[in-house]
Design a protein that fits this description.
The chain is of the alpha+beta class and 433 residues long. Helices cover 49% and strands 20% of the residues. A hairpin with a 3-residue loop joins strand 5 and strand 6. It holds the Pfam family Rotamase.
Length: 433
């Protein structure tokens, strides 16, 4: 029997003292298959709002499925603490938004889901239906997305007006960029696992190692960031944007410097916690990509639609599921053969600007060895893949307005972390077993 305290000795300290012990017991309960009355029991109270076993079970299932982590007792023991902490943060964020009169509509949530599908190169409507088929309640997905959106709107309304960027600060950044012109910068994404007290060290490291295993099994970095990262960037799949030396922690910058396009780091320990980092693109400071003049070789898989076939939306989802994990055009060809489709023909090298309109917009944002979104055409369901890409670069130093927005984003990120930390400290958080 786990011996966990059940009443707080101080609002802020209680969650740090009890959470690890309590969530270990919770993971065992969820794995053993709790009865209905157990599922309705309260796991945690955040101010005057309760989280039940049922709530946590549903979110754990979402986290495991979307992260491609096999459902086991050991996996749940590692995942439950992060899931419960994220749920507690979400309750605090939504409560603060309600206090300030910030409310989101269902249309806002629908739009965010469509954006996630677009970023993940999924057909419209595929996200919720794919998860539902794997036992995930779509309402829980909407709940998480609503919380993320609500916090983003709160940060924009409350923190945005506090940010003042002077001309001198902008000019200093422009001069710094000019001094570093010709050096490399990267477009990166992050997963952040905080370590707020020594007893969280082993738990955060174990979670990071589990996420690394998920990445090795083909789970997208963005999916893991949305479920497990505790950074404000989590709602955007962990996207940091373009960064270079001096814009992030020295430990993070040093690791990013060693990564090439498409590579993911090992766990990085900083003073605040653990990071996993991924480099999405690289470029030279002072240059930018001219997509129209960049050249690509594109493969297109065509899946015929026979008479009496299922609805087009179902076929689009199947095409996405078939091709999404292809890492090269050789794998893409093998998948076509497996599906009984013709070998995907190649087009190129060709300028992106010369591609057909239905392909140009999609391919412009794709990297080499990346699969596109299935398209409904008269010939059938067509799935494109970029086999190779050679970017055309142009000299394009950033404008003062671009630099101002970048500094604002950095300041907003820092202040939003501080805001949430203050909400945690002021809250009554009672984790119960």
């Amino acid at each position: 029997m786990l011996d966990c305290p059940t009443r707080p000795e101080g609002h802020g300290m209680f969650s740090r003292i009890v959470l690890t012990c309590a969530t270990a017991a919770l993971a065992l309960t969820l794995w053993s298959g709790a009865q209905a009355q157990m599922l309705d029991r309260v796991v945690a109270v955040i101010n005057d709002e309760a989280i039940s076993y049922r709530d946590v079970e549903a979110r754990v299932r979402l986290a495991l499925v979307s992260s491609n982590i096999p459902d086991s007792q050991e996996a749940r023991q590692r995942v439950v603490p992060q899931v419960l902490r994220k749920m507690i943060d979400e309750r605090l964020q939504v409560q603060e938004a309600q206090r300030l009169g910030i409310v989101l509509s269902n249309a806002d949530v629908d739009g965010a889901i469509a954006t996630v599908e677009q970023q993940s190169r999924m057909p419209r409507g595929a996200l919720l239906s794919n998860l539902a088929r794997q036992g995930v309640d779509p309402a829980r997905v909407r709940e998480q997305i609503r919380a993320d959106l609500t916090w983003m709107r709160l940060v924009t309304r409350v923190i945005g007006p506090q940010i003042r960027i002077g001309e001198e600060e902008v000019n200093d950044r422009l001069q710094s960029l000019a001094d570093r012109q010709g050096l490399r910068e990267v477009r990166a994404a992050e997963i952040f696992l905080p370590v707020e007290s020594p007893d969280q060290e082993a738990e955060a490291r174990a979670m990071g190692e589990r996420l690394q295993e998920g990445l090795r099994q083909g789970t997208s970095f963005q999916s893991l960031a949305r479920q497990f990262s505790r950074s404000p960037t989590s709602s955007n799949g962990g996207l940091l944007g373009w960064v270079s030396q001096g814009m992030v922690d020295d430990e993070v910058a040093a690791v990013l410097e060693t990564l090439d396009r498409g590579q993911t780091s090992q766990l990085v320990r900083t003073s605040s916690g653990f990071y996993l980092l991924q480099v999405l693109e690289t470029r030279i400071i002072g240059q930018s990509v001219n997509a129209e003049d960049s050249t690509v070789t594109v493969a297109r898989m065509t899946l015929p639609v026979p008479a009496g076939a299922p609805p087009k939306a179902d076929l689009m989802e199947r095409a996405f599921a078939l091709t999404r994990n292809a890492k090269s055009c050789a794998e893409f060809d093998a998948l076509a053969t497996k599906a009984g489709a013709p070998l995907p023909p190649r087009q190129g090298p060709v300028r992106i600007g010369e591609l057909p309109p239905e392909l140009k917009g999609m391919v412009a944002g794709m990297a080499a060895n990346q699969v596109g979104v299935p398209m409904d055409t008269p010939q059938g369901i067509v799935v494109p893949m970029v086999c190779s890409r050679q970017d055309a670069m142009v000299v394009s130093p950033p404008t003062a307005e671009q630099v101002r927005r970048q500094i604002e984003d950095e300041r907003r990120d820092m202040l939003s972390r501080r805001y949430l930390r203050n909400l945690r400290r002021a809250a009554f958080i009672d984790v119960r077993m």
